[in-house]
Amino acid sequence: MRVSRIILAVATVMTTISSHALAERTVRGVVVKVDGLAGIISVREMHPGMAGAISYGKVEGFKAQDGLLFDAVRPGDEVVFSASEMNGAMTITKLSEQ
Fold it and tell me: Are 73 and 67 contacting, i.e. CB atoms less than 8 angstroms apart?
């Protein structure tokens, strides 16, 4: 009985840690659209390929945690940012231009 409680506690901790790690991610991409009224920055993800080739993924919209981000980026800018889930939406928490 005691062993099963320990196993259950360890499984709960591992699940919590892994779900938090999955909730935050780092994205490299190109800004497609900046919509200050809606509070969304749309980014097309960049994926490095073989021999220096770059492939582009889908366009995804991210909320901005800081309203100043809308003044910092323009469509066409290459950016690297961290995003985490806040209130059910992926939200940019850190951003840097390339």
Answer: no
Distance CA 47, CA 64 (A): 22
Domains belonging to the chain, first-starting first, are 24-97 (2.40.50.320)
Integer Cα distance of 52 and 27 in angstroms: 18
Residue with tokens 């062993």: 3
Neighbours of 74 (CB within 10 A): 10
Rounded (5°) CA angle 77-83-88: 125
Q: How far apart are CA 59 and CA 43, in angstroms?
A: 5
In this structure, the strands spanning 78-86 and 40-48 are unpaired
For 11-47, how does the pLDDT look when each residue is reduced to its tens digit (9 = 90+)?
A: 565 555 444 545 688 889 999 999 988 999 999 998 7
The Cα–Cα gap between 46 and 55 comes to: 6
